[in-house]
């Protein structure tokens, strides 16, 4: 199932094989709309390391207690030619210009976390 021109539901499915609940889909669609803006800005494909996580899988892998992943609001992403910090900086620019939704940005060694929680949260993993 396509969520947008460049993203499919499969990319965001939980790694434990569980079915994404239908009430999560509107959140994923909003997340993907924001990631499309980023993709257009950087001009390269975005790889999704982790999208939706079932609550049990999130707990199993040590995800944050109030993680945005089980809500369908978050993606851990990579893009060829961009460091996690460079991706985070682009997201910050797009949020500041009103093109992407304010949310959480986490910079990790190999990926950038972005979520659409609606409030500003920043951290280094």
From TrEMBL:
Record field: transmembrane: none
Listed InterPro entries: Peptidase_M15A_C (IPR013230), Zn_M74/Hedgehog-like (IPR009045)
Pfam families tied to this protein: Peptidase_M15_3
Ranges of residues in domain Peptidase M15A C-terminal: 6-115
Name of the protein described by the UniProt record: Peptidase M15A C-terminal domain-containing protein
Species for this entry: Flavobacterium kingsejongi
């Amino acid at each position: 199932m396509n969520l947008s021109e460049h993203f499919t539901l499969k990319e965001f499915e939980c790694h434990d094989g569980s079915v994404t609940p239908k009430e999560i889909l509107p959140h994923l669609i909003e997340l993907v709309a924001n990631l499309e803006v980023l993709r257009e800005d950087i001009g390269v494909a975005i790889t999704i390391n982790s999208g939706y996580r079932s609550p049990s899988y999130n707990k199993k892998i040590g995800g944050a207690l109030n993680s945005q992943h089980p809500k369908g609001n978050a993606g851990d992403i990579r893009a060829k030619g961009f460091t996690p910090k460079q991706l985070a900086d682009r997201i910050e620019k797009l949020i500041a210009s009103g093109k992407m939704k304010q949310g959480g940005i986490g910079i990790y060694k190999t990926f950038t976390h972005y979520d659409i929680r609606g409030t500003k949260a920043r951290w280094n993993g």
